[in-house]
């Protein structure tokens, strides 16, 4: 895998809590705030409950991660923990947390600016993105293509998507916010090919959109349309989703294509400090976030077709993940704040494209 971004050096937390956690999170992206934040210890004789609001594309993975953490925490502290796992698209989860309908103690969302919005409302402390390595993104996936078995249209890269006879199925970023990655990946591909040529990037994304025969309300509808109803020639989705489907509901029916240059999709995690404090679960919430950066959780991520942050894990999955050039929003584009405005904000490119 040829990644065009630099790995940030690991910071090892200090303080009593961090020293305890060190035995479990060796080689992890440990919470860097534990040295500066007084976190009251839990009464381990009483059970605790967490609510982790996640993007729906990660829900199956987090079910296993939650089971692993519950056992891990019980063995370390003797405390019983239960975890609720409401899932939805990233922006919907953000709005529910801000509005108080979703009292999340932890949230793992698809785009960092959604967590920034929660922070702006005072529910998350400043500097959430620096609490962990990789900008607090515990694992990643990429944008990939699903084609029908035998790849009848000969699709191997982005340029093949804009051939005259190709019909694309993908999800609508205005109704399914995680689909922002799909259009952003087309944008990133063009800019990587013709650096700083935003006009060329606009033209390519426009051409891409014109080949979209179905702009589904979400990935679930896109899956039903492509797999069950045989609509379209190629489905643009996440690599993790594509690999999952190719090994389950689409087995024998579809193949996965990861283009030579693609965009990293990086879910991000933060404790929702205000909620966790009010509920008295700050310690266990931080420990849960720490757990995502352990080898145990990273292995679960890879088994669910997400790319681990640890080379020691990745080396065991070289037959699963394509070795391609992976761009990132922060290092190869202008960051999500600017990208959101350019592509999806008021007056942005997507709003100027033909309605599907």
TrEMBL record:
One of its GO terms (biological process) is sulfate transmembrane transport. GO terms for cellular component: periplasmic space. Its main location: periplasm. SUPFAM superfamilies: Periplasmic binding protein-like II. Keywords: Periplasm, Signal, Transport. Gene3D superfamilies: Periplasmic binding protein-like II. InterPro entries: Thiosulph/SO4-bd. One of its GO terms (molecular function) is molecular carrier activity. It comes from the Bacteria. This is Sulfate transporter subunit. It comes from Cohnella abietis.
């Amino acid at each position: 895998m040829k990644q065009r971004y630099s790995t940030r050096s690991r910071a090892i937390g200090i303080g009593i809590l961090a020293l305890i956690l060190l035995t479990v999170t060796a080689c992890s992206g440990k919470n860097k705030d534990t040295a500066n934040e007084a976190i009251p210890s839990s009464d381990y004789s009483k059970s605790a409950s967490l609510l982790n609001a996640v993007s729906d594309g990660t829900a199956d993975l987090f079910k296993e991660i939650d089971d692993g953490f519950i056992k891990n925490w019980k063995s370390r502290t003797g405390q019983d923990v239960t975890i609720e796992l409401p899932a939805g698209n990233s922006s919907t989860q953000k709005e529910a947390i801000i509005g108080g309908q979703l009292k999340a103690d932890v949230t793992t969302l698809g785009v960092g600016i959604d967590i920034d919005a929660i922070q702006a409302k005072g529910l998350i402390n400043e500097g959430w993105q620096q609490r962990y390595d990789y900008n607090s993104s515990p694992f990643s996936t990429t944008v990939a293509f699903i084609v029908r078995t035998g790849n009848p249209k000969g699709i191997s890269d982005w340029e093949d998507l804009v051939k005259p006879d190709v019909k694309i199925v993908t999800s609508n970023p205005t109704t399914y916010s995680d689909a922002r990655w799909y259009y952003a990946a087309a944008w990133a591909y063009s800019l990587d090919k013709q650096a700083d040529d935003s006009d060329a990037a606009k033209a390519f994304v426009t051409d891409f959109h014109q080949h979209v025969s179905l702009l589904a309300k979400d990935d679930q509808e896109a899956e039903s349309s492509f797999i069950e109803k045989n609509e379209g020639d190629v489905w643009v989705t996440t690599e993790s989703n594509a690999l999952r489907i190719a090994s389950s509901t689409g087995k024998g029916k579809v193949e996965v294509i990861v283009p030579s240059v693609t965009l990293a999709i990086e879910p991000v995690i933060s404790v929702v400090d205000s909620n966790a404090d009010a509920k008295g679960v700050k310690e266990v919430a931080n420990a849960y976030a720490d757990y995502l950066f352990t080898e145990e959780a990273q292995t679960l991520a890879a088994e669910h077709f997400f790319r681990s942050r640890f080379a020691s894990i990745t080396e065991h999955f070289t037959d699963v993940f394509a070795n391609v050039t992976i761009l990132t929003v922060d290092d190869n584009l202008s960051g999500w704040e600017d990208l959101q405005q350019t592509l999806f904000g008021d007056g942005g490119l997507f709003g100027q494209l033909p309605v599907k």
